[in-house]
Each structure stands twice: as C-alpha cells, then as structure tokens.
Design a protein that fits this description.
single chain; 288 residues; alpha/beta; Vcp-like ATPase, Chain A, domain 2; Rossmann fold; 3 domains; 7-stranded mixed beta sheet; two-stranded antiparallel sheet; flat; S-adenosyl-L-methionine; tRNA_MeTrfase_Gcd14; tRNA (adenine(58)-N(1))-methyltransferase; transferase; TRM61_C
Amino acid sequence: WLGRQELRPLVVAAGQKLDNRFGLFRHDSFVGRALGAKVFSEKGRGWLLLLPATPELWAAALPLRTQIIQALDRAVVTAELHIRPGQKVLESGTGSGAMSLSLLRALGSKGKLLTFEYNQSRADAARKDFEALGMQERVDVFCRNVCQDGFLCDAVEATSVDALFLDLPRPQDALQSAAEVLKPNGRLGSYSPCIEQVMATCDGLRALGFHSIRTIEAREKVFEPSRLDFIDLEGAAAQQREGVQRRPRAPLPMATRLCAKAVPGMRGHTAYLTFAYAPLTPLGDAAS
C-alpha cells in the first residue's frame, strides 16, 4: 500500500529491493513482519504498508486485462451461488481473475475452481497470477470457448458441479452445457450488463427446466456518520413546562446529534445478476 490510489502487488525475494518516490525498501526488511505493519524506507523519509493479497486488494492492484466485476457484485454472486468450502465450482470468463479470487476464498483449501477463458493470452496470464498467489493447486485454468465446445471434458464430468458462474457476452449459448454438468438443483449465476442479455438468458433457462429464476441489480449507497445541530425540541418543551419565559426572537435551544448522512454520487448501473437452480432431473435422464 503506497497510497489511497496506489497499490502494487509485490513478491518478496531475498536480496531484492524496491525503489520508488518514497525511498529505498529492501525486501529483507519485510521478512518476519506482521501483515499490516508500516515499514519505513532506509532513510526514513517514506513508508509503506504490508497487506495480505485479499481478493479486494488484488483486484485494485492487478493489471486489468478486461473490465473486472466490482466488489459488491462479486460479494452478491458468491452469496447467491451458495459457495461453501469443499465444493466444485465452474466459471466461464476468467478475464483478469477478480471474480475467481472471490470464489476461491469462499471455497477454502479443500474446494476446487475450474475457470474457462477463450483468450489464450488472458488464460496464461491468469494462470501465472494464481501461481504467484500460491493457489495453483486449488484452481485449474482452461483455454476453451464453452459456447462452442461446452464444459464437458476430461476434468469436468456430467452432473459433477455444485455451482457455475457465467460472465459471457452471450450466456444463453452456454446454458445447455451448463445444465449437463451441474448437479440436480445446482446453482447457476450469470453476469450481464444489458437487459437484452438477461431476457435471452431467462428464456433459455426456462426452456431447459431451470427453476426459481430471478434477476437482481446491486447498488451501493454509502453513508457516513456526521454530527449535525438540530433544534432541541425536548429542551424547549422542558423550558415551557417549567414556565421559563423566552424573549421574543430569542434563538431556540440547539442540540448536536450523531447522524448517518448519505454520500452523494452513488455508483450507477454495473450489471444484472441472474440466478437459477438446475433441473431436479438431469437432462440425460429427462430425455430417456
């Protein structure tokens, strides 16, 4: 952490150094320090904070390969997909990996994430990021166009997946394959910026027998505590009961109260989040 608008991922290595406008920092001085510690430069004219690579911080610091899903939407997706430790989850549209990290945190050390990205360079970059974070054993990255080739492969068997998340331009093209790999009553989520994508997705989900389909939009409204002065009505009433005579035009008694004030500039629309449960009967069984 170098400032409110400046976060950088750093891999600590013996003998290496970090030189920036705040001064010279030797990696050896980071070793053994607690996370959250403030480390001063060699000449003491600047400092930085050592912070863990949480999904939120990593998303703010990583080089963007694609537009990332915002923190509020990532939290809603993780909750609505009912992600729990030890599950097997599929994701299509790895992109910069921000959503992947949120899913991995919820899956815990025993869970498994299989993420699909059709662009080879982005898939390779995401794989390197996961290795740098020490998560290579918990996530597999595939370069595959699931809209054309589907999810079924050597690593993914039919009805073996607990939850599946789609971040695709045409999510409706991947629904048939998603229904094949999801467990009965498994959870599916889709991220779509446009309502036309939502309409096509919901039509496809209904046609495949998905149930409990719903679409939501998450908006973040921030409140900040502040102290404001108000007319003290209770004090004025007490004075009246006690017979205290108030001079004409005399100011009314005031009182300071702690209030929650909405911060102007609420973030606008990001995307529509569609969720559904897979059919209770697998597609193959229903067809037979």
